[in-house]
Amino acid sequence: MRENIKLSRRGFIKATGAVCSAVLMSGAIPGLLKPVMAAEEQIDIKDALKKLFGDKKIETGHVDLDVPIIAENGAVVPVTITSDLPMAADNYVKNIYVFSEGNLNPFVAKIGLTSVNAKAEIATRIKMRKTSNVRAVVETSKGNLYQNMKEVKVTVGGCGG
Amino acid sequence: MAEIGKIMIKVPGAIKKGDVIPVKAMVVHPMETGQRKDAKTGNLIPEHYINDVKVYYGSDLVTSMEWGIAVSTNPFITFYLKADKAAPLKIMFKDNKGGAFEQTVQVNPQ
Fold first, then answer.
1. Model confidence at A26, in pLDDT bands (50, 70, 90)?
2. Could you report the predicted ipTM of this complex, rounded to two decimals?
3. Structure pTM?
4. Which of B84, B31, B78, B72 shows the shortest CA–CA distance to B55?
5. CATH of B7-107 among 3.10.180.10, 2.60.40.10, 2.130.10.10, 3.20.20.70
6. Is B10 near chain A, with CB under 8 Å?
């Protein structure tokens, strides 16, 4: 009798363990976001910025970045970027760039605005591969660059996550 | 994904001329990164993502966007617009496989 209980308990642990690792290996939990990654090169944020802006200096300030401190789901991270810079016909925020530094390719999006937008604010949802900085760079029509960045902790769900 | 390319655009109902209004748009799209494996076959699912977005207010191109693979599935975007004329607001999405989707709403400031 006792032996039976032991066996069944062992069996239970074995079974749950098997299910757990099967789920982990399949990498297919819906909405779980750490997709099985291909062995690709990580592009460094410095290189990504250099490619877009050359050696131009990027100032700090004039960019407000609203991101969660912790993102439970790395596939859907809400990002809001606002700038207090003018949106006049002859001087406006021309581009807002969004980067997720831990992604293989940190570039997420470039949003080109005009003075008709009247307000330099955009919101979207981005994918983050892992805990890293989200960086916003604002480019004015006069060619000045401003930035802000914040770390977002990406928690990965699943067994033992 | 039968509804791929379905677009929803939301603008406020009552607008006064000159108001700066939020425009919210969502488009149904898988936004495949090219880094995800098919659970059954183990093969990489090819990239399939929207990379080009254009917003026209009347005949003016007011906002244009370039997106990479890291914009979330079923992309959602909010931006602002100064509603200074009664005109159609058209948003056009294009993806890397030649898919093109558009939707128009009327902006009617009083």
1. very low
2. 0.95
3. 0.83
4. B78
5. 2.60.40.10
6. no
